[in-house]
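Journal club side-thread
Mid-discussion, someone asked how the predicted structure for our own chain would compare to the paper's figures. Pasting it here so we can look after the session.
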Amino acid sequence: MRKPLDLQAFGLMLIVCASLGLQQVALKATAGDVSPVLLIAMRSGIAAVLVGLYMLAPRLRSGLRRKAGAIGGDPVADGGWKPGLLVGFLFTLEYLLLGEALRLTSAAHAVVFLYTAPVFAALILHITVPAERMSLRQWVGILMAFAGVATAFLGQRAGADRAAADMLAGDLLALLAGAAWGLTTVVVRGSRLSRVPATQTLLYQLTAACLLLLVAAALLDQMTFRPTAMVLANLGFQSVVVSFLAFLIWFGLLRRYVASRLGVLSFMTPLFGVLFGVWLLDEPMEPGFVTGAMLVLAGMTVVGSAGWSGRAGLIGWTLRSGQAEYRGTDRGDEAREQAQPGDGEAGRLAQAGQGGRAAQPSEAQRGRGDGGHGAEAKPRHHRQAAFGAAGHHGIEQCAINHAAGHAAPGEP
């Protein structure tokens, strides 16, 4: 049974959200020496190696030959490689759009528009998944968020000068990056990736981003890399802290605490992004953007904390940092952990939500031919509020994704 939040959880969430909020600011700060797209490609490659080593660590420690699914899953056997390619492409598209946005607009603007991902995911799920119908309260949150986007766009300084036009274009690219993030959440939710460890999904995303963004950087003539002290420090921060350590902290918290509360705290990430942009980069804050940003954040909080159709179930969170995606159910994830005690720490980190279905039957149940039928095996309606780590994100998995997963607010 997960615990309610305590001071330690709040402190660790501050660290995670501050790290994720700082990532866009750091990318913007070094854009003169290395393009954001190239830096994201490099950090994704380094983080992919770290995640791969982390997935192998239990096997190396035990010295035993364990089944692939306990560590990272067999992409051929579990059929996850096809949707893995798709989420890898969408993840690459998200960060390509974000990298280009950071060349045109401020980091504060970029982080706010990027974190509209939950709104896009909620709308798509409402249309495509009958079990994900939104409540009236969540529709109010959606309208608040889009009103905030409109206010932020319309409230920018008027003028036909190049800087104003570039900022508007950058804001639009960041908004499209948020839409790509939201679509990634939907793909993971509705595919076989919802039943594989989050580390496996993360590895798909990081590997694809490294390869495809390197190609994009070359095609866009953005291969300049000046290894200054700040650039190298930023690369280390993005690769190790944002794309890897924040991911580990996040999933450690999810194993111990009620995840719906953690999900609401994750909305501190864009606030940190705005504050760091103003403090470290001296970015101006137009009154229209401040008003719009507050409406966006308020709307996302409403969408993220409200129940879907008033039922207990799932809050999906995509943590994006570079990034991680977690999907878990309030009781379904605990049942899976109990049914698979030998799957190892990495395998227990993030078994995916079942897209409105209950937890999969255990191997013993499948062997008996009962298919896991019973009270806990019956389909349920779930609610979804798709967020992100990190990245992108993270983490993205923040997800985030969000996701890049979670217990219901009513969990005992």
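Post-session note: The CA atoms of residues 155 and 310 lie 36 Å apart.
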